[in-house]
Amino acid sequence: MTSPISSTRVTPRRPSGFPEYLPAEQLAFNKMLATVRSSYEAAGFGPIETPALELAEVLLAKGGGETEQEVFRFGKGSKDYVLHYDLTVPLARYVTEHQNDIAFPFRRSQIQKVWRAERAQKGRSREFYQCDADVVGESDVAVDGEMIALAASTMRALAVGDFVIRVNNRKILTGLYESLGVADKATGLLRIIDKLEKIGEAGVKELLTKEGLDDSQISTLLKIAELRGPVAKVTSELQELAGNNPQLVTGLEELERAIQAARACGVTETQLEIDCSIARGLDYYTSTVFETVLTDLPELGSVCSGGRFDNLAQYYTDRALPGVGISIGLTRMFDGLRDVGKLDLTAKTPSQVIILPMNDEAWSVAGKLAESLREANVACELVMAETKLPKVFTRADKLSVPYVAIIGEKELTHGKVALKDMSSGEQTEVALGDVLARIKHLH
Amino acid sequence: MTSPISSTRVTPRRPSGFPEYLPAEQLAFNKMLATVRSSYEAAGFGPIETPALELAEVLLAKGGGETEQEVFRFGKGSKDYVLHYDLTVPLARYVTEHQNDIAFPFRRSQIQKVWRAERAQKGRSREFYQCDADVVGESDVAVDGEMIALAASTMRALAVGDFVIRVNNRKILTGLYESLGVADKATGLLRIIDKLEKIGEAGVKELLTKEGLDDSQISTLLKIAELRGPVAKVTSELQELAGNNPQLVTGLEELERAIQAARACGVTETQLEIDCSIARGLDYYTSTVFETVLTDLPELGSVCSGGRFDNLAQYYTDRALPGVGISIGLTRMFDGLRDVGKLDLTAKTPSQVIILPMNDEAWSVAGKLAESLREANVACELVMAETKLPKVFTRADKLSVPYVAIIGEKELTHGKVALKDMSSGEQTEVALGDVLARIKHLH
After folding, report:
1. Is pLDDT at A121 greater than 70 in this prediction?
2. Which of A25, A372, B18, B32 could be stapled to A51 by a disulfide with Cβ–Cβ 3.0 to 4.6 Å?
């Protein structure tokens, strides 16, 4: 019956790029995850989940070398599977597949792990959580303002300190590119400009020169990219630049409407900037684009990004599905905050109390006490196994559990509990019915 | 700039065996998921998550043909990956890898999707949630009683109707097998007995005959397997059968201690039965084993199962890690309840209110109203896009949103809201500051 002990042990290890948390980290991470979920749902974004595995022909319908190299893809039987690498393509598939069963505008939130086969490096896990919210089937950019406000209220709820949301509109950029006569190269050029923060001005200049741009064109592009700052200031600078290019004029109007809506939805002046360098690498964005940077941790890059798309599901349907979405890279933000010591990782267990019945006769009283505490949302650990008192104290210390409640023969007789406050070391006799109040009072 | 529209569309579809929920289902599912999470954490089981992908050589260290056929396994570069097919083997790997950073007994909960490459069939998705809780590093079977109680309290919290937890101890079975002289075949025989409910008595008899058992042995085995019912009755029958076989005597003692502990932790008499047919197919169980059946939906099989193991991580370490765990197959239970109409799927969005500012001037008032409702845990959808009133009413109807709050020019002037109760159709003027109270009162 007993399984034979194998003589060769395997070293327990994970593939590189697949970190996992210790319980204290996971508790803190889950708290943030729950905060994002609540924030999205409070704003009326109903949750969905899509399968981790999709068919390669469907998920990679768009084609494109970079994406294909970055996915975990494999055959099994006659099927060619891919682990989803974002939540946007699955959303496009979902919305098309279920279009007769959902109401448009479709407001959905989706919080799941995604997988990317890119080379593992610091801050770049191959498995991480994305927290997305999108409105699909709505073309008014006022909704973009609402989404920027959702980003802001979620960041506030996460209590990760000050932040700035940097907004732009891709039509402003394409308008400028048109007036420079490089509209045909716009997508490629935008991708290069997008690297400004990463590779610096010199690097960007080099890449632009390779694209065949002359010095005057490059200097105008960089001048635009460096336009950033408070909304009022940049808007007037842009208005001067706008001239008569209709794309640029439209882009500026959309940007102003989105910002006005964001303000109405509670985004403060200091939380919002225009930043004309922002283009977002993804080519499905067509209008509003934005990124969010933590004031104390700019090196993390954008922790919450988003934008508007004209056509979410063009590879699946003729139906035009415009919309706007935001995405929080929660794993990356969490890890970044942890690495600079900005997270409270004190709690190593959800338990506030460890309850120790000193003998079997005390089991039932201990069980009832545990039940009453749990009903009042006080998590507690019940020690049913025969365990010596010092061992329980050591455990409470090790796990940072604030209280130990002991029920021995004496306590059982008097309907009491010996309650030890682990931080003060003080131990007092408390009537069974008063334990909850005492803990809540002391805590 | 605008992405080119591809001329060939791909049909959006999922691989078979990978269902996904519509928002109403996902909302209900997530509620159950949150209930399980709360129940586990209230009992002091700290959460962990392990990567979806593990190295094949680690996860499949145990070997065994069945498991290897059932996993999604694939090479990528020089790596041989497997999607985890349960949460127990990853727990064994986790506990061994982090043994110096965690406190034993290690009380952990783990709620994640798992993947199995088995043939897709009704009620058998290839991707599903498992909700596990385990105590690792504790040999006293009193803890098994606590885990049975955790199963019971979680089922109560899920409000899925009456249920019975059927408990057994594998030592009782092995003891009997010893006395029948078939101890060497015990594991295989237990697997056969375990199929009693699935393939019936005749099927089991046939398989046992093939194993070389004679009629008298078979009839004894079946007699044992049919021993089930209230604890007191079966215990006395078992005591008669026990005789002097030390395994059987130990098994009975352990069973009694576990049941006594479960009772002390709040499991009622009707929620607990002894059932000697239960062996659990998994060969790592060595003592207590149990299953949970919903009284109104026995055809679902066990919705929450568990048991005690002597040696969790034998393939990774010499360190003996005994413990006990439970697992809820939440996706399967949810789908089963949905299929028989036992779930409330009315809500198609988290929103309780849709707020419609009739013009841009009303944006800011609408935004503030939304914020105040959300702070009071009333989810609401804000319609920032220019939208006609009838369209909003249609949407509220379609999504079963109980209230629509309209802020037009007149309302703006008087600091009021036109609040429409969608179920009665009644529309009343409510002062901005009274909307929350009105909604909570009416609801």
Report:
1. no
2. B18
